[in-house]
Task: structure prediction
Amino acid sequence: MFPEFDDICCRYTFACGDDWTVTSGLEEGVTQTSKKSSDGRQIFVLNFPLDITFKSTNPYGWPQLVVHAYGSDVFGKEIVRGYGVTHVPITPGRHVQKLAMFVPESSSRFQKFLSWFVSRRPEYTDPTRVASGEGREVTRVRSQGYVTVTFNVVTKDMKKMGYDSTPSDVTNALPGSQTSAASPDS
Result:
């Protein structure tokens, strides 16, 4: 949701550790351009399915989805409207996540005016940079909208590798599982 803009398209990239490989699907892509809905919600609906399969023997560097949104400025040039990142959920099932989007800011008023005038706003040369923590403390950013992403996660052979990825609410509901809860009266 980007309330002050009328047209948005998103590009996506997956960032992951060195031990991870993509066995099927696309690591990056671009959606269609969407117009803001005319109802009171004023949302953009992309309905763009991403289908990707990862393989690894190590959870370090768990995959992250990096989304960067683009739109046109008053001069018709395509400029970045926001960056957002989230880890792919570690438990199987359906997950809805809201990604807070942000844009880099110019460091001075003069640079801000100049970047507006020539339609060259600050942006990352490598969008996956937002998936790492390095250098984030020196980057000036401004919050700008959000994107809602729905994940449908399937895992395979996690138990064989020694990992239990069963959601805690499912584990507690299984027959024979034991739970302990403190009573407010005790």
About this structure: Residues 7-164 form one domain. The longest strand covers residues 141-153. The chain has one domain: 7-164.
